[in-house]
Amino acid sequence: MSLEVQDSEVDIVIAALQPNLTSFFQAWQPFFSRFDIIVVKDPELAADLQIPSGFNVKVYTKSDIDGLLGATSINFSGHSCRYFGYLVSRKKYVISIDDNCLPAKDPAGMTVDAVTQHMVNLKTPATPFFFNTLYDPYRKGADFVRGYPFSLREGVECMLSCGLWLHNADYDPMTHVVKRNQRNTNYVDAVMTVPLGAMFPVSGINVAFNREVLGPVMFPGLRIRKEGKHRWDTLEDIWNGLCAKVICDSLGYGVKTGLPYVMRSDAEAGKALESLKEWEGVKVMDDVLPFFESLKLSRTAVTVDDCIKELAGIVRQKLAPKNAIFSKAADAMEEWTKLWKSHGAQNA
Amino acid sequence: MSLEVQDSEVDIVIAALQPNLTSFFQAWQPFFSRFDIIVVKDPELAADLQIPSGFNVKVYTKSDIDGLLGATSINFSGHSCRYFGYLVSRKKYVISIDDNCLPAKDPAGMTVDAVTQHMVNLKTPATPFFFNTLYDPYRKGADFVRGYPFSLREGVECMLSCGLWLHNADYDPMTHVVKRNQRNTNYVDAVMTVPLGAMFPVSGINVAFNREVLGPVMFPGLRIRKEGKHRWDTLEDIWNGLCAKVICDSLGYGVKTGLPYVMRSDAEAGKALESLKEWEGVKVMDDVLPFFESLKLSRTAVTVDDCIKELAGIVRQKLAPKNAIFSKAADAMEEWTKLWKSHGAQNA
């Protein structure tokens, strides 16, 4: 896992949903301190942020969002505020970790450097065309197994790295309510490419991507009605991930899941019950997943920008008649392509 | 991982490629002794088998194969002899482990019960329609993550369980020669369903399956020219696995990979070099994988038997013109459906 990571190629983007980020920054200090950090404050959060000194931090607030973008149909409140950070970053890569997550420990007791692991995931090839049963073939001590075609062993570029979570796993509110005392303790020491054509639920809790390439599809599109501030309220990252996966599949890029883990703080089961009463997310995915699984983007869409424009049109045509939230998602997708062109597309 | 496994529902099938199975059986005694064991002796192996007492073993030899089947176009020599055991078994499930494998230890130092883990894999549902980022959602302490559609949480029946290998990994002869000192030490504590449409290289080293359902597709079809007695010489299991995967995908069944591990004894690097000189396997997979990835079986093929007959026809039409080994594979596939009907299809 040795790899040169330049400070100048990575921004760390943190969505501040709580004012006091002191213990968060202190815990991440060994891994974050040499990088530029973009903190985007939830536009609905009133209290002043507390961020310890010793970091290269730039904080963006509601007035920055309003000032830069003016009137926009995209709602940047709650967890969605981080996407504003993706827009104003000028780095090749972005890493984003929720503000209720701390560094995890591996089974040997070593603290996990999530930054380096994400960068290893992004900078080593992905293998979407055939599953390797020993997982990441480029990892030290591993290789391609017997039967793996030699013509596929160079792999393709990896654009998205989705890390995982120990302790409080990323469940929906129903599962949180039912299994309120269950904690994830299983550290699975593997990174794998999600195969071509296979869809998976991307969590925005602990994620990294190639901003230069994937930026036009890293938007907050799907917002369910009466969405709150908890992860379990949201599907914006799941939707985002499905869009990113179909586009990576269409353009021949790879997407990985597995390491690194972060340690998530405790869920509040009572509050999950509150969310559940009106949670639209229970049924939405039953429409969303078949839509993405049967989707085929045209061969003439050869950039991420081409693909997302085509995808927004298909969402409007096929999904929007079922539920107004999909119509709003299509609006947000089209709006994002414009915002990205004006504000996001400049690179360092 | 607690689960009731009936002695009467499982056969363990061992291909004897070496005469002295004493240490193999002794090592597996805690896990094998209560089950019926079918040992099939490589028809080209001359020396008498040594098997310790205390096991319910039935040994099949060349004369049993010839006596039951008469003239057949299927070549049961080498690793392929185990498939005769699949044919004569009358149990619902079969587990097969290579005779150079011993029980592995997990990271906590506990000896792995590969039999029970395979049966857990087969008896708990598989989830081929969406990837669960926390891997097996039915495992103790795990669940479906946020975004996983509730309509898919019942899963489907798992028909094939492919275990892995510590120490001497299952590489092709080229990789064995290049990395002669590399040993796999990474115990990845996970079981996962291979997603719908994703192909993967099934290794026959450590495998279990539902014989009643999948039997008609568990055949030795592909035999490369000048194939020897080493695993690295063979692609019969890889071909078999690709056939099984497309058929499971077509019929809505699941296939899993991951746990259990077994410990494989050392490779003999010098011999890998000998195999390599004439190893046809280097290029064969570059034709085989695209064939399987683009394959679509018809909706009217609703049983494994229907599917394998259709598949054999497509192999003959599309692949056989490229290489005579595919024509022989199609012969073997058609022959196997007949053998299975006459000899394999009876259940206990």
TrEMBL record, chains A, B:
Is Glycoprotein tagged as a keyword? yes
- Key words of the record: Cell wall biogenesis/degradation, Glycoprotein, Golgi apparatus
* Glycoprotein found in the keyword field: yes
Q: Which PANTHER family does this entry report, sorted A to Z?
A: UDP-ARABINOPYRANOSE MUTASE 5-RELATED, UDP-ARABINOSE MUTASE
Q: Which residues are glycosylated?
A: 146
Catalyses which reaction(s): UDP-beta-L-arabinofuranose = UDP-beta-L-arabinopyranose
Give its localization: Golgi apparatus
Its Gene Ontology molecular function terms? UDP-arabinopyranose mutase activity
Q: Which InterPro entries match?
A: RGP, RGP_fam
Site feature location: Required for activity: 146, 153
What is the organism field in this record?
Hordeum vulgare subsp. vulgare (Domesticated barley)
Task: Tell me the Gene Ontology biological-process terms attached to this UniProt entry.
Answer: cell wall organization; plant-type cell wall organization or biogenesis; UDP-L-arabinose metabolic process
Q: What's the encoding gene here?
A: LOC123428052
- EC category name: isomerase
Please state what the protein is called.
UDP-arabinopyranose mutase
Membership in a protein family = Belongs to the RGP family.
Organism placement in taxonomy: Eukaryota, Viridiplantae, Streptophyta, Embryophyta, Tracheophyta
Give the CC-aspect GO terms. Answer: cytosol; Golgi apparatus
Role played = Probable UDP-L-arabinose mutase involved in the biosynthesis of cell wall non-cellulosic polysaccharides.
